[in-house]
Amino acid sequence: MTAMEIGTPSAWDVLESANLPNGYRVEITAGKIIMTPQGEHQWKVILHAASQIDRQLAGHGDILSNVMIDFPSILYGYAPDLAIIAPGAERNSRGRYAWHSLEAVIEVASASTRDNDFQKKFRMYAECGIPLYVIVDPSDGTCTTHSRPTRTGTYAEQDRIPFGEDLVLPLEGREIVVATDGFPRDRR
Questions:
Q1: What is the pTM of this model?
Q2: DSSP secondary-structure letter at 21?
Q3: What DSSP letter does each residue of 64-95 carry, written as one string?
Q4: Which of 137, 144, 115 shows the shortest CA–CA distance to 186?
Q5: Where are the beta strands (DSSP E) in 109-173?
Q6: Model confidence over 96-124: pLDDT tens digits?
Q7: What's the pLDDT score for residue 1?
Q8: Which SS3 state, helix, strand or coil, does residue 116 take?
Q9: With 0-12 CB in 10 A as exposed, 13-18 as middle and 19+ as buried, what is 181?
Q10: 3-state SS assignment for residue 112
């Protein structure tokens, strides 16, 4: 995959001098700045999964949560709920990781993020060649893994597992197993 060149605009450039309120997740979708508070269920899934992933990575890659990632678009700036960074990946000239550094992205769906998670991010992550995209959905108690991205904005394979079963993340040369029995259900 092509690296983002120095001087190439990033969607995040518009926020460079902005004073944003604490406690809100900020992303840019179709050129619009979207700020949403993180829900309790999202936070608990992220906390539960991140610690398991970090422990298993054991220094072979990194895990980030809600951190700006540069994508090859001035209209889209995503900060995934969880992003697994490939071993040896380097930050770009802005001090951020770019899309080609990601081995996997995990998004935790909520009522306010469903459209983005299931449609817009799905398409963007596939077009960028993110090898593994997982949507954790507390409302229906499932994790859906999408693999084998295509340039047409889809993934060729999909697997759905219910909370309570292990979520297996096949990464380059290794596998991460996330126990989902502690993921909370959103029964609203």
A1: 0.83
A2: P
A3: ESS--EE-S-SS-BB--SEEEEPTT----TTS
A4: 137
A5: 132-137, 142-149, 155-162, 166-171
A6: 999 999 999 999 998 777 888 899 899 99
A7: 35
A8: helix
A9: exposed
A10: coil
pLDDT (tens digit per residue) in 38-91: 678 888 999 999 999 999 999 999 999 989 899 988 888 888 999 999 999 999
Of 142, 175, 183, give the one whose Cα is nearest residue 47: 183
Q: What are the residues whose beta carbons fall under 8 Å from the beta carbon of 143, sequence distance 6 or more?
A: 134, 135, 136, 137, 160, 161, 163, 167, 180, 183
Q: Can you tell me the distance from the alpha carbon of 31 to that of 53, in angstroms, rounded to the nearest whole number? A: 32
Alpha helix (H) ranges present in the chain? 40-57, 114-115, 121-127
Q: In a 3-state reduction of DSSP, which class is residue 24?
A: strand
Give the HSE-up count for residue 73: Cα atoms under 13 Å, Cβ half-sphere.
Answer: 18
pLDDT bracket for residue 184 (50, 70, 90)? very high
- pLDDT reported for residue 75: 82
Residue type, 40: E
Residue 61 dihedral angles phi and psi, to the nearest 5°: 110, -175
CA 84 distance to own-chain centroid: 8
- Residue 100's pLDDT is 96
- Residues β-bridged to residue 172: none
